[in-house]
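Our preliminary data section would be incomplete without showing what the modeling component actually yields. Below, a chain of 110 amino acids is followed by its predicted structure, encoded as tokens that our downstream tools consume directly.
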Amino acid sequence: MGFIILFGVNTINSIILIAVMKENMRRMDLKEAISNGVHSRIRPIVMIALMGSIGLLPAALSTGMGSEVQKPLAIMIVGGLLICMILSLTVLPQIFYFSYRRKATRHQNP
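Predicted structure:
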């Protein structure tokens, strides 16, 4: 259940970021498009991760009756959301660069 939530949130973050970077590629070169795309989408990606993390923080920190079932799932989702946010902002732009660098050089040198 927790992994399905993490995959869904990470997919949303990736779609948002890749769409902006592709749109920026129409107007500027590859490195500048990636840089501007990441800078313009930091706030939405951080807000998505923080919203889920802060919402599940009480369940992750609970010690009452019944928390034996909720606590591990909540901890995994909170940690996973924060890690996915960091990876979306660091690793995804690098993968995008390596995927589109050949296409970008072909358009510059016909």
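Residues 30 and 104 are 7 Å apart (CA to CA). Residues 67-108 form the longest helix (42 residues). Preliminary results of this kind motivate Aim 1 of the renewal.
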